[in-house]
Amino acid sequence: MRHHNKVKKIGGVRRKRVALLRSLARSLVLEESITTTAAKAKALRPFVERLITTSKEGTLASRRIVGSRLGGAPEAVKKLHDTLAPRFEKRAGGYTRIVRLGRVGKRVTDFARIEILK
Description:
Layout: H1 14-31, E1 34-37, H2 38-55, H3 60-69, H4 74-87, E2 98-100, E3 114-117
């Protein structure tokens, strides 16, 4: 049983999971919408929500924290602080949305459910 284990493993060791989440988060911040599997979208959502909440502070420390969590992507940090944080200034959470693609949203090779994370 998975009592007190909230980490979604996404089939890999910690280093690979962190690298995957960082790259997906960078893509989501820069493109503002990505298409991925349901499991990856559910694991990525809290990661990105925390980044946006931290970037809403607008301090130098928050820029450094977000930069370290994204693996040092300066263009993503700049967009988070200058574009996305003011957009969600009055919202207390729920910045991202997972949209299911229905019947069409099944991957051909392994029949995994595909979703859009906005």
